[in-house]
Amino acid sequence: MTTNTNTPVRTRLDFAKAAPKAFRALIGFDAAAREGLDPALVELIQIRSSHLNHCAYCLHMHTNDARKAGESEDRLHMVAVWREARHFFTEKEQAALALTEAVTLVADGGVPHDVYAEAAARFDDTELAHVLALIFAINTWNRVALSTAKMAGTDERRR
């Protein structure tokens, strides 16, 4: 019999309860990062980062949030392959998705100048700073969810 090594043998830490100040600070950072950004763009960034980090918990949560905000199924299905389906996304969204990939995978080669320059051309400095902050935030949330073994389909924001 094979055992799945990803199946938790015991309940993992409840990060929100164990470190409430850190958790609230992360919620505040996340909220501040979103300010002034198009809600559809926010969800696209969070979905793409969650794809790259293999975070099913966050991917499930943010695709549901995107649907509730009116995002189309077509676009949701194309986020993972946006380069091959550019016509589904605006140039601004494409720049944000490319930047999301570069920052999320920063250890694989940094943030290439051309990717950053394209984003800087599509967003003003304030917007770009918020896009970057959002990318930082979702990467942190992905790591919280993955390290504490959050299960997809159990959106704890609603409890």
Word description of this protein:
By secondary structure, the chain is mostly helical. Helix content is about 60%, strand content about 0%. It is built from eight helices and no strands. The longest helix is centred in the C-terminal third of the chain and has 23 residues, at about 125-145. The mean pLDDT is about 90.
Summarize the structure.
The chain is mainly alpha-helical and 159 residues long.
Task: Summarize this structure as a short list of keywords or feature phrases.
159 residues, mainly alpha, 8 helices
Write the layout of secondary structure elements.
Elements: H1 15-18, H2 20-34, H3 39-52, H4 56-68, H5 73-78, H6 91-104, H7 113-122, H8 125-147
Helix pairs in contact: 2-8, 3-4, 3-6, 3-8, 6-7, 6-8
The count of strands amounts to: 0
The fraction of residues assigned to DSSP E strands is under 5%
| Rg calculated over all Cα atoms | 16 Å
Structural class: mainly alpha
Number of helices: 8
Low-confidence stretches: none
Termini, distance in Å? 36 Å
Given the C-alpha coordinates, what overall shape results? globular
Instruction: Note the run of SSEs as H and E.
Output: HHHHHHHH
Largest sheet: none
What's the assembly state of these chains? single chain
Mean pLDDT score, rounded?
A: 92
The helix fraction, in percent, is 55-70%
